[in-house]
């Protein structure tokens, strides 16, 4: 272990942020603001660290944005282990998010997919189900963006080949959006 490896990580993260076109993040903030005003539901999903990020961002949207206690109606589809293990066991792991959307989501709701590769079958199927239902979809992606790059209505893509930096960027986007929304009124 050495300081150079730590500094290298910081440089790789910073280079992903420097010069990035933030216009699609603004589209995400606007989509969430609309969902908030219209009392629509927002769903987040991802696997592994991205699942944890989905839960973290859900917390920020439910509570962190609300100055008056009226946050966004939001759910992390990765949060309920009973549902996940039931659907995974009975239907297959690739159905754990799309089946929840089929039951809970309505046209006009919002889905945010968090994925390093953009190729996990369960997040791909979630985006396909969102399109089928009429749910507006966003994806925060790393690597090449995978299949999700083309399936999401709005893809926020950081072409970084490092899973930890890809996951850091998910939270950075989530925190940017949260701060943007908390600075606005949802009248």
Break the fold down into its secondary structure elements and pairings:
Blueprint (H helix, E strand, L loop, with lengths): L2 H15 L5 H15 L3 E5 L3 H16 L8 E4 L4 H10 L7 H7 L5 E6 L5 H13 L2 E6 L6 H4 L2 E4 L5 H20 L5
Parallel strand pairs: 1-2, 1-3, 3-4, 4-5
Helix pairs in contact: 2-8, 3-8, 5-6
Count the domains.
1
Distance between the termini: 52 Å
CATH superfamily: Glucose-6-phosphate isomerase like protein, domain 1
Taken in chain order, the helices and strands follow as HHEHEHHEHEHEH
| Largest sheet: spatial strand order | 2-1-3-4-5
Percentage of residues in strands: 5-15%
**Rounded radius of gyration (Å):** 16 Å
Helix content: 40-55%
Low-confidence stretches: none
| Total beta-strand segments | 5
Overall 3D shape: globular
Largest sheet: 5 strands, parallel
What is the number of helical segments per DSSP (H or I, 4+ residues)? 8
CATH architecture: 3-Layer(aba) Sandwich
Mean pLDDT: 95
Task: Report the top-level CATH class.
Answer: Alpha Beta
Structural class: alpha/beta
Query: Within the CATH hierarchy, at the fold level, what is the topology?
Result: Rossmann fold
């Amino acid at each position: 272990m050495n300081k150079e490896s730590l500094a290298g990580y910081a440089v790789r993260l910073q280079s992903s942020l420097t010069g990035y076109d933030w216009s699609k993040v603004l589209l995400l903030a606007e989509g969430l603001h609309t969902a908030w005003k219209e009392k629509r539901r927002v769903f987040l999903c991802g696997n592994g660290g991205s699942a944890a990020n989905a839960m973290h961002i859900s917390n920020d949207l439910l509570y962190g944005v609300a100055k008056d206690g009226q946050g966004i109606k939001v759910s992390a589809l990765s949060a309920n282990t009973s549902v996940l293990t039931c659907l995974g066991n009975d239907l297959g792991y690739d159905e754990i998010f799309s089946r929840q959307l089929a039951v809970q989501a309505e046209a006009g709701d919002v889905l945010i997919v968090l994925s390093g590769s953009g190729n996990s079958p369960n997040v791909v199927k979630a985006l396909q189900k969102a399109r089928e239902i009429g749910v507006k979809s966003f994806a925060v992606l790393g690597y090449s963006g995978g299949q999700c790059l083309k399936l999401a209505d709005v893809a926020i893509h950081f072409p970084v080949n490092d899973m930890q930096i890809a996951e850091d960027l998910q939270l950075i986007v989530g925190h940017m959006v949260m701060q943007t929304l908390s600075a606005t009124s949802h009248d």
